[in-house]
Amino acid sequence: MDTNHKKALQRNHKALCDELELGADLEANLVHCGLFSEEMLDEIKAEKSRKQRIQKMLKALRRRGPDAFDKFLSCIHELYPWLEQKLTESYQDEVNNRAPSSADLNLQRKVDLMVHNTFGKKKKFCKDDKQEISNFLLMHCRQNPRQDYDGSHSDHPEQEILRKIFFMLTSENINGVSTAPLSVPEEISLDTIAIEISRLSEKIRSLEKQLDYYKTIEIGDTTKSLEEIVNLAATNELKLKASQEELTQLQERLSQKDLTINENLERIQNLYSKIEELNLKCTQLKQKESLPQMRARTRPIELQKAPFQIYGLVHDDVVGKDNSPRFPSLRHQTNISQQHTEVKFKSERFPNGIGVRASNSHRPSKKY
């Protein structure tokens, strides 16, 4: 399919998408004339909406050979005769205006120069700016009238110029690959041209950002091949994956350490509780052990007092009966015992008798 066929399909793309229906009759015609196989039609019909199916079919039609346009016209001849007529007329118009004249090229240069000189690097155009561009185009058309327009274009020279500018902006990218839209508006205004210019400006800024990115990453030469860049990206992806796996392992080890620390803290708390219980038991045992010792200390004193108490009781009982002074009183016996203890203590302290006063044992005892 040549350029004129493609442009004819582009000009009528909207009408084809709105009115065509990929039904059984059209499918049979497409298979019969050899444009598409049944497998290709099944792939086209896999799209969700009717419009998407027609768009995919028209896109594939461009690559079905040099006679694909004529075969497609024969397929829609009986089903959609009005569409066949539109496509035929559009093709004839493209054939008549196929070769761009030097005037068209000069117009493109003049428009570019006028926009650059007037607006500079301005990215958005206001209403007055668009009106100024429109006035420039109208003035150019009046000064350089074209004699080769047919009757359909003679009344609208501005639309023809805007259409050509639109195709200039959307026909090719920097690699020469066609990026023209599948549908062309029936009436092109300066707003449409401004939108396309803004789109190209955004694309230029995006390419500049990509160049800056290639400069910032560790690529010494920005002219590296695509294969080298893809290999570098794959290597970086593997490194990133390895780093993520290592991070996951470290997180698991950290979680295990946290569990171990918590278990040790619980053990320490249990040990503290056991230590407190043992201390309490030790205190209780000490208290139990001290009670017999206290009792053992107090018992000899009680045993020493017991004979005197018994003697006093017996003496009081005897004296109470006959008032006999045969037995000394309990108080007298206590005094004698204390004197004897004092003499014994002094004799042990002063064995040579120095400083020892006469003990009470050498004094004459009283007779009762």
UniProtKB/TrEMBL annotation:
Which residue numbers delimit the CARD domain? Answer: 1-91
Signal peptide residues are none
Q: Does the keyword Coiled coil apply?
A: yes
Q: Which UniProt keywords apply?
A: Coiled coil
Mind telling me which Pfam families this protein's record contains? Answer: CARD
Q: Which InterPro entries match?
A: CARD, CRADD, DEATH-like_dom_sf
Query: Which residue stretches, if any, does this entry annotate as coiled coil?
Result: 190-288
Please give the PROSITE patterns that the UniProt record associates with this protein.
CARD
Protein name, as recorded: CARD domain-containing protein
* Species this protein is from: Sinanodonta woodiana (Chinese pond mussel)
